[in-house]
Write a structure and sequence with these properties.
Elements: H1 3-11, E1 18-22, H2 26-40, H3 46-49, E2 50-54, H4 60-67, E3 77-82, H5 89-100, E4 106-112, H6 120-128, E5 130-133, H7 142-152, E6 156-157, H8 159-169, H9 173-187, E7 192-193, H10 195-201, H11 204-218, H12 222-234, H13 239-261, H14 266-273, H15 277-287, H16 292-310, H17 315-327
Helix pairs in contact: 1-2, 4-5, 5-6, 7-8, 7-9, 8-10, 9-10, 11-12, 11-13, 12-17, 13-15, 13-16, 16-17
């Protein structure tokens, strides 16, 4: 089951006794959990009807005893198990019989990272309950996510505003959700969030620095790129976020360069690439500086940089090397 399918079921009031929420996108796991809790447990009764356990600290008996207890003055009891991936095999074995006959007045929610659907516990869980996979979204899913978030705040979101937010926050859903909430508040009574609203709310320094770094890399302006990189890191931006932003920018340049080589018209490039016309002119100009074969080579370096940072390398040095490699290419 996908998170959006679960959310639709919750909205219809179709609630089951067993949910295992897993995947590499914690924001979606937390949002699904929040929606279930809002639906099932009144805030005034959470002391009685909500129990939270951690897979690293509890045994299966604790979870079972609570799950088999009737709710107090309410229709549902919720048992939430965080870090479910740390539950021992002994705990899973102990809980297995419960999956065959779960309490109809208890909603057992387990949060985890990865699951092995070949194991008996998860095979049975899938038959009797819901396994909800919360995957990190692909880039083309970010704008729909933002529009959905804007709708939850009673707003529409202009395409250019969505593009800018993605540029600034990357694929970090928590950051995107936080920013859209701030921008929606700023927009006040206006129905649509515009790119000017985003510029007004997000730090000017950050907007300028991120765009100037991207533009400097696209135009191979080494001095400006190094200066902007230093500013962004000094202001506390996560290095992996910076790498994600650079990667995204060059993914667009590569895509546009391929279309330019096919002599595709700019309007059609905008449609096929999904780049808003507001940003397209600058991207087209920069795309001329990088041949497709160079873009492919750069992506090998992006992958190597990501691996190096996650393996304990020094992020500022890795990013500086990357900037040098990009700006010193002949094009």
């Amino acid at each position: 089951m996908k998170p959006e399918e679960l959310e639709a079921a919750i909205a219809r009031g179709e609630i089951g006794p067993l949910y295992y929420l897993y995947g590499d996108e914690p924001y979606l796991i937390d949002r699904a959990t929040r929606l279930l809790l809002e639906r099932l447990v009144d805030p005034s009764s959470r002391d009685f009807n909500l129990s939270v356990y951690y897979g690293t600290e509890c045994k299966g008996e604790d979870i079972l005893d609570t799950a088999q207890t009737m709710p107090m003055f309410a229709d549902w009891r919720v048992v939430l198990v965080k870090r479910g991936q740390s539950l021992s095999q002994a705990a899973l074995d102990l809980m297995f019989p419960y999956l065959l006959d779960p309490s109809p007045t208890t909603c057992l929610i387990i949060q985890g990272e990865k699951i092995d659907q070949r194991k008996k516990f998860f095979t049975e869980f899938k038959k009797r309950g819901k396994l909800v996979e919360c995957k990190r979204p692909y880039e083309n899913q970010l704008a729909p996510f933002l529009r959905s978030e804007a709708t939850s705040h009673g707003k529409k979101l202009a395409p250019a505003a969505a593009e800018l937010l993605i540029y600034l926050a990357g694929n970090n859903l928590q950051e995107l959700a936080t920013q859209i909430e701030k921008v929606a508040l700023f927009a006040g009574q206006r129905e649509t969030i515009t790119i000017d609203d985003v510029k007004a709310v997000v730090s000017d320094t950050k907007v300028d620095s991120v765009f100037e770094l991207a533009n400097a890399l696209g135009t191979k302006d080494l001095a400006t790129a190094l200066r902007r990189l230093k500013t962004i890191l000094r202001d506390g931006e996560a290095p992996l976020m910076v790498l994600a932003m650079i990667t995204r920018h060059f993914r667009q340049l590569w895509q546009v360069r391929v279309l330019l080589d096919k002599r595709v018209a700019e309007q059609e490039i905008s449609r096929q690439s999904g780049i808003n016309p507001y940003f397209l002119k600058g991207v087209v100009k920069q795309a001329g500086n990088f041949r497709p074969v160079e873009c492919r080579q750069l992506f090998e370096r992006f992958f190597a940089a990501d691996l190096a940072m996650k393996s304990g390398g020094r992020p500022p040095a890795i990013l500086e090397d990357l900037v040098l490699a990009i700006c010193q290419r002949k094009g």
